[in-house]
UniProtKB/TrEMBL annotation, chains A, B, C, D:
It is found in: Membrane. Gene3D superfamilies: 1.10.287.70, Voltage-gated potassium channels. Chain C. It comes from Pontimicrobium aquaticum. One of its GO terms (biological process) is action potential. It comes from the Bacteria. This is Ion transporter. GO terms for molecular function: voltage-gated potassium channel activity. It holds the Pfam family Ion_trans. The keyword Lipid biosynthesis does not apply. InterPro entries: Ion_trans_dom (IPR005821), VG_K_chnl (IPR028325), Volt_channel_dom_sf (IPR027359).
Length: 278, 278, 278, 278
C-alpha cells in the first residue's frame, strides 16, 4: 500500500513536471524541451547540407540517437503519468510525440534490408515534423488557433474562388503567350503563373513578353489586387467580430461556490448567483 | 391522365436531384457533378501539355466525348425540369452549362472545313470555363459574392486611381531609365513595370539599374505601399460594415402565413404580424 | 443690353455643359472628354514605342495637334464661363488643364532653336500628366481622396518608420553580403534591396547568396511582414473610424432657405430650423 | 551667487533649445539636427560606393569629423542640461546619441594598431545607426510605437507560427525538388524559399521547376495567402481595439490644481474634482 502511495506520488510529481508549465520543475523541463526540439531541427537541417553531412556525419548521427532516446523517454513518461493514456496517444500531440521518435528506430531496421533510398530519405525528413512539438508553446487557447478554426469555411471558399479565377486567367494567358518564348508552355504552367501573380509572390520565372500579354497581365494584377482585398477583408472582419464576442475573464474565485473564470465586469457569480467580493 | 401524373412525378423527382443538394439523391448527384467538372478541367489541362497529348491523344479525346455527353444530358434535364426554362437558359449558370457542352460539338463540324487553327484552339480552351460550374458550390448567398457586388463601385475607383498613378510613375521612370539597358524601352512597358511594382508582384523582368532609377523606385515602393493601404482599408471597412447590416435569419416558418426567413431575434412575423411560436 | 443678356445666357449654357455632369449636354461633353483624354494618353504611349513612332509619325503628330487644340478650347471655355476665373486658373484642375495644352505649343517653338533633346523629350512626356484630368471622375468628394488626405500624417510617419528600418537592415546586409557576388555592392543598393524586400515586391535582381545572408534576410522578411501589419492596420483603422463619422447627406433642399446637403435622417433644416418636407 | 544664477539661466535656456521643439530656438535647433542626421547618413552611404569614395575620400573624411564633433557637442550639452543625467545616459536615445559619436574616435585609435579591417569596417557602418536619432521625430507617444509595443506578444506568436509552417513546407519541397536543378539543394535553402514565398516577396532566385513542385507550391501559395490573412487580421483588430480605448486628452490645465492631460470630454478635474473652466 505504501508502495502504491509512493508510486502515485512519484507519478503525480512527474505529471506536474510534464504538463504544468508554471511550476518551477515544469518551467525547467519546458525550457529543456524547447532547446532539444530546436537542436533536433537544426541537426536535421545540417544533415541535408552535403558538405556538412560528409564532414560531421558521425557527430550528427550520435546527436540524433541522443535526441531520439530523450524524446522516447518523454513519450513513455507522458503515457504513464496521464490519466487517460489512450486519449493522449490518439490526440494531436500524442501522435506528434510518437512520430518524433520512430523515424530513427525505423531507419535502423530498414538499413539492414535493400530498401529504396527515397523511402529512407522521406523517413529521415519526417523528423522535421518534430517542430510541431513547438505548437505547444503557441497554445491551444490563443486567438490564432481559434481564429483559424473559425475561418476554416471562409478560407476554403476563398481558395476555391481564387483557384477558379486562376484557371480562367491562366488559360487566357496561355492562348495569348503560348506562341512566345516566355514559359507559358501549357495550361497547368499558365495557371501556376496566375497563382504566382494573383498572390503577389511574382517569382519572374514565367513572365509575359508580348505586348498583349503584358497588357492583359497588367489588367489581371490591378483587378486581382483589388478583388483580393475583399476576401482578405472578410477574414479580417471575421477576426474582429470574433474578438468582440471574446469575453475577458479574471482569476477571481466565487467565495460561495469557488467557481472561477468570471467575466471581468461580473458582480454576481454566474454559477450560484451570490455576490462576488470586490 | 395517369400518364401526365407519372410524368409530373418523374419530373419532380429529377428536379429534386438536380436542384436540391440536401436530399440524399441530390447529394449523390452533386458529388458526381463535382468530380466530373474537376476531371474535365484536368483533361483540358493535360491536353495542353504536348508530351502528354501526343501519347494519350485517343484516351483524352474519348474522355472529352463522354464528359460532353454527360454535360449535355445534365443541360437537357435541367431545362426540362425547371419551372421557367427560359429564365434558366439565360441565367448565368444556364449560359455556363450550355457553353460546357458546345465546344466539342462545334470542333466536330469545324474539323471538316479548312478553318484556322487558332479559332479551333480558342474553342477547345473554352472548355476550361466549365470550372465556373464550380461557382455553384460557392453559393450565390455567401458573403463573398455579396461583398464583391457591394464593393464594385469602390473597386472601380480603386483600379482607376492606381492606373492613373501607374501611368505617371511609369512615364517618370521611362524618362530616367530609358537610356539604360534595363527594359524600360517604352512608356507602355514602364507602366507595366509600375503596375507590377505597385501591386507588389515584382517579377524582376524589368528592374531599374541606374542609381537614380533605384532611388526613385525605392520612393515609389515606399509611397505606393503606404498609399495602397488606404483603398485596401476602404474595401475592408466596407466589408466590415456590410457584415454588421447582415441580418441573421432562421429557417422557422410563421404558423399563420407560412412565411420563412424571419430574423433570428424576431418575435412577430414580418409579413402578417402574428406572433411566431417559440 | 439684349446683347449682354444673350451673352450671359450663352455663358450660362456653356457653364452647364462644362461643369454639370448630370445635365444631358454635360453628360455628352463628359463622355467626349473622357474618350479624348484616354486617346491622348494612348497616343503619347504609342509615340514612345520606336517601331510604331517611325511608321505612324505623321498620323501621331496630327492627332496630337487635334487633341492639343481641343484641350485649348476646353481651357478657354472653362476660364470664360467660370465665375471666379483666377480661382480656377490656380486650382489643381486649372493647372492640370493648362499643362495639358502647352507642351505641344512649346515643342513647336523649341524645335526652331538648338535645344537639348532631353528637355524636349521631358516636355513631350509632360503630356502624360493629362491623365490627371481623369481625376475629375474619381471625384473630390469620394471616400478615397478624403481618406488619403486624413491619413497623410500617418502615411508620412509610416514611410519614415519603414525607411529607418530599411537603412539599418540594408547596412547589416551590406556588411554580410558585400564580399559575395550578389549585388550588395554599396549601402544605397543594400537599402534599395531592403525596401524591395520589406514592401514584398521582391524583384530578385539583388538577392542574398551566402548562408548567413539568407538566414538574416529570412528573419528580416518574417519580422518585416509581421511588423508592417501594424502600420497597415493603423491606416485601415483610421479609414474605418472616418467612415463612422461619415454623415450621409441627400440632395434635398430646404423649402424655406433652400439650403442643401442635409443629413439623410434630418427632419429639420440644419440652417434655418424649419421642418423639411418629407 | 549671481554666477550660479547666470549658470542656471544659461542651462535652462539650453535645455529649452534641446528638449522643447515648440519654442522658436528649439525649432531652429531641431531643423538643424534633422538636416545634420540626414547629411550624416548620406555621407556614410556615399563612402560605401567605391567610385565615389576613391574620388572624394578627403572631403567625406573631413565632413565625418565635422559631424562627429557636432554630435559630440550635442551629447555633452544634453548631459549637462538634463535634470537626471544618468537616466538620460542609459535611456534609448542616450545610448543612440553616444553611439553616434564614438565610431569616428575609435577608428582614429584603431588605425594606429594592426587591427582587422572587418572590425574597422563594421565600426564605420555603426554610424548608420545615427538614423535612429530620427526616431525622435516619430515620437514616443504616437500610435505606431504604442501599437507595436502592444502587439509584441501577438507578433512573436505570428512569427513562430509562420516559421513552423515554413520549416514543414520547405522540407516537403526539398523532398520533391532536390533532384532537379532548381536551387532546393538543402533543407535550410528550401525553408528560405518557403519564407520568401509565404511572405509574398518571391525573389525567384529559387523557384520550383518540376510539375509536382509547381503544383505543390501553387497550393502553398494559395493556402499561405489565405492563412496569413488571419494573423494579419488579428494584428489589425488589435490596433482597432487599441484605438478605441485611446482617450483623447487636451492641453487644458485645471485652474485649481494645475493638473494637465484631461480627457477631451472632461468636465471635472480627474485629480482634485473641481470644475474645469470652459
Amino acid at each position: 500500500m505504501t508502495q502504491e502511495k509512493t508510486n502515485s506520488k512519484w507519478r503525480h510529481k512527474l505529471h506536474e513536471i510534464l504538463y504544468e508549465a508554471d511550476t518551477p520543475y515544469g518551467r525547467v523541463f519546458n525550457i529543456g524541451l524547447f532547446i532539444t526540439i530546436i537542436a533536433s531541427i537544426i541537426f536535421v537541417m545540417l544533415e541535408s547540407i552535403q558538405s556538412i553531412d560528409s564532414q560531421y556525419h558521425d557527430f550528427l548521427n550520435a546527436a540524433e540517437w541522443v535526441i531520439t532516446i530523450l524524446f522516447s523517454l518523454e513519450y513513455i513518461a507522458r503515457v504513464i503519468t496521464v490519466k487517460k493514456p489512450l486519449k493522449y496517444i490518439f490526440s494531436f500531440f500524442g501522435v506528434i510525440d510518437l512520430l518524433s521518435t520512430i523515424p530513427k528506430y525505423l531507419s535502423f531496421f530498414l538499413v539492414g534490408g535493400a530498401h529504396s533510398l527515397v523511402a529512407l530519405r522521406a523517413l529521415r525528413l519526417l523528423r522535421v515534423f518534430r517542430i510541431l512539438k513547438l505548437a505547444r508553446y503557441i497554445g491551444e487557447s490563443t486567438n490564432l488557433t481559434r481564429a483559424l478554426k473559425a475561418s476554416r469555411a471562409k478560407i476554403s471558399v476563398f481558395i476555391l474562388f481564387v483557384f477558379i479565377l486562376c484557371v480562367i486567367l491562366g488559360t487566357i494567358m496561355y492562348l495569348i503567350e503560348s506562341g512566345q518564348d516566355s514559359g507559358f508552355t501549357s495550361i497547368p504552367r499558365s495557371v501556376y503563373w496566375a497563382i504566382v501573380t494573383l498572390t503577389t509572390v511574382g517569382y519572374g520565372d514565367i513572365a509575359p513578353v508580348s505586348a498583349l500579354g503584358q497588357l492583359i497581365s497588367s489588367f489581371i494584377m490591378l483587378m486581382g489586387y483589388a478583388i483580393l482585398a475583399v476576401p482578405t477583408g472578410i477574414v479580417s472582419a471575421e477576426v474582429v467580430r470574433m474578438n468582440k464576442h471574446n469575453v475577458h475573464t479574471n482569476t477571481q474565485a466565487c467565495p460561495y461556490c469557488m467557481e472561477e473564470k468570471h467575466r471581468d465586469d461580473a458582480e454576481y457569480c454566474y454559477s450560484c448567483g451570490n455576490k462576488l467580493n470586490e
